[in-house]
């Protein structure tokens, strides 16, 4: 039986999985899940980037597969909206190149959130990366807090609060531009207004993002989950940070 690639574009943890059992855990019972199986990794990556199989061009085996970036529709200019971008990134090389070209007033944040069912706590984690032109600096931000009994979004609370913590840190340190990398799709879609915010956490997050207009430029990068076929090193780092903060590992 030929092997398959299971692409989860919207789920608990997005990414490309090599078994249905692994992918099923991310989409089963998840409202609005988007997933599909493919026989080639190129097709799965294209699906993650918003393309269809017919848009994929064949490449020679000797050529490495390049990450697919979705074509974004033109959005009307709205003065109340911060400057936002949404790009799919699937390899460490692209991220390392981004870090290398950071300007002194720019920062990168890898964000993640998690929930501990036993202690009923959620946690957020952030790996902040800056480059002063001479050295790349990394700083960890993490905090565990009791879950809101009136909001059952649990892990989502950690995900969105990680982004908020990253933005606050960047503004406090007078950075003008922040690039946010996250594997949870809602972080990007709520910020862009593509998903309707319904939970308390999502509504508060959306309002927070809109309030940043004129204060800091933001753009967003969607990465595969930490247990996908090709995990992102910095995403693994922030996942471990969050789990450690919650006492899960």
UniProtKB/TrEMBL annotation:
<comment type="function">
    <text>Endonuclease that specifically degrades the RNA of RNA-DNA hybrids.</text>
</comment>
<keyword id="KW-0378">Hydrolase</keyword>
<feature type="domain" description="Ribonuclease H1 N-terminal">
    <location>
        <begin position="4"/>
        <end position="47"/>
    </location>
</feature>
<dbReference type="Pfam" id="PF01693">
    <property type="entry name" value="Cauli_VI"/>
</dbReference>
<keyword id="KW-0540">Nuclease</keyword>
<dbReference type="InterPro" id="IPR012337">
    <property type="entry name" value="RNaseH-like_sf"/>
</dbReference>
<comment type="similarity">
    <text>Belongs to the RNase H family.</text>
</comment>
<dbReference type="GO" id="GO:0043137">
    <property type="term" value="P:DNA replication, removal of RNA primer"/>
</dbReference>
<dbReference type="InterPro" id="IPR011320">
    <property type="entry name" value="RNase_H1_N"/>
</dbReference>
<dbReference type="GO" id="GO:0003676">
    <property type="term" value="F:nucleic acid binding"/>
</dbReference>
<dbReference type="InterPro" id="IPR037056">
    <property type="entry name" value="RNase_H1_N_sf"/>
</dbReference>
<dbReference type="GO" id="GO:0046872">
    <property type="term" value="F:metal ion binding"/>
</dbReference>
<dbReference type="GO" id="GO:0004523">
    <property type="term" value="F:RNA-DNA hybrid ribonuclease activity"/>
</dbReference>
<dbReference type="InterPro" id="IPR009027">
    <property type="entry name" value="Ribosomal_bL9/RNase_H1_N"/>
</dbReference>
<keyword id="KW-0460">Magnesium</keyword>
<keyword id="KW-0255">Endonuclease</keyword>
<dbReference type="InterPro" id="IPR036397">
    <property type="entry name" value="RNaseH_sf"/>
</dbReference>
<feature type="region of interest" description="Disordered">
    <location>
        <begin position="55"/>
        <end position="84"/>
    </location>
</feature>
<protein>
    <recommendedName>
        <fullName>Ribonuclease H</fullName>
        <ecNumber>3.1.26.4</ecNumber>
    </recommendedName>
</protein>
<feature type="compositionally biased region" description="Low complexity">
    <location>
        <begin position="63"/>
        <end position="83"/>
    </location>
</feature>
<dbReference type="InterPro" id="IPR050092">
    <property type="entry name" value="RNase_H"/>
</dbReference>
<keyword id="KW-0479">Metal-binding</keyword>
């Amino acid at each position: 039986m030929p092997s398959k690639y299971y692409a989860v574009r919207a789920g608990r943890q997005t990414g490309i999985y090599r078994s249905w059992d692994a992918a099923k855990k991310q989409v089963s019972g998840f409202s609005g899940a988007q997933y599909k199986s493919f026989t080639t990794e190129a097709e799965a990556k294209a699906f993650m980037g918003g393309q269809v199989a017919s848009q994929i061009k064949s490449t020679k085996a000797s050529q490495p597969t390049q990450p697919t970036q979705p074509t974004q529709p033109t959005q009307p200019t709205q003065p109340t909206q911060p400057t936002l971008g949404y790009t799919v990134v699937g390899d460490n090389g692209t991220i390392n190149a981004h870090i290398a070209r950071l300007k002194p007033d720019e920062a990168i944040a890898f964000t993640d959130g998690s929930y501990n069912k036993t202690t009923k706590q959620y946690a957020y984690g952030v790996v902040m990366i800056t480059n002063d032109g001479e050295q790349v600096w990394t700083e960890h931000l993490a905090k565990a807090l009791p879950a809101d009994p009136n909001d059952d979004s649990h892990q989502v609370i950690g995900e969105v609060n990680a982004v908020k913590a990253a933005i606050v840190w960047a503004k406090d340190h007078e950075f003008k531009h922040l690039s946010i990398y996250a594997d949870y799709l809602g972080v990007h879609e709520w910020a862009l207004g593509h998903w309707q915010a319904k939970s308390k956490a999502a509504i508060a997050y959306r309002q927070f993002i809109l309030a940043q207009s004129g204060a800091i430029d933001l753009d967003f990068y969607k990465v595969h989950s930490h247990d996908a076929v090709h995990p992102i090193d910095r995403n693994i780092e922030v996942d471990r940070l969050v789990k450690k903060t919650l006492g899960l590992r």
